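#onboarding

Welcome to the new folks! Below is a worked example of what a typical request in this channel looks like: someone posts a single protein sequence, and someone else replies with the predicted structure as tokens. Don't worry about understanding the tokens yet, we'll cover that in week two.

Example request:
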Amino acid sequence: MLFDLGGTLVEADVVHPGEIFRRVLTYVGISKSLDETKSAVLKADKEAEATNLVSLFGKIQCEEYWHKWNSLVLKHLGLEKNEELAKAVHSRWFDFMGFTLYPDSKEVPRELRLRGLKLGLVSNGYEEEIHLILEKVNLEKPTFDIIVGVDTVQCMKPLQTSSNMLLRN
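Example response:
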């Protein structure tokens, strides 16, 4: 039996990646409004599509992809050529994003295992991000026999846009 992560096992506390971007920037001492960060994210999404950056999602290292995407957002915030800031956004992202485990997200997999089923987790996130989220919500890695991220198969699940991949890009 396969499970998705976001929207199935966990819920993110933020509905737009611009909010996380704003939180990280505030943490490092840069003040931008939520409207500014949301607008920059939307512009970065369009540019990522136009430049085919989105096609690299899962095909290049997680840190490299997010560095490129964060740099686009920073550019649209008027903070271009700030490599260290792009790295800081990546390294702090999940510090400023909360997740809530849905009710029964521990019990149902446990019960299915007791019934002899093999369990898999399939997500449009990078595997390292999936593991971070599982750790944050205290859902043990051994719950699943296999965890498949976008980098595992180098292909996203259908109907996913860059702005809602784990509320990240």
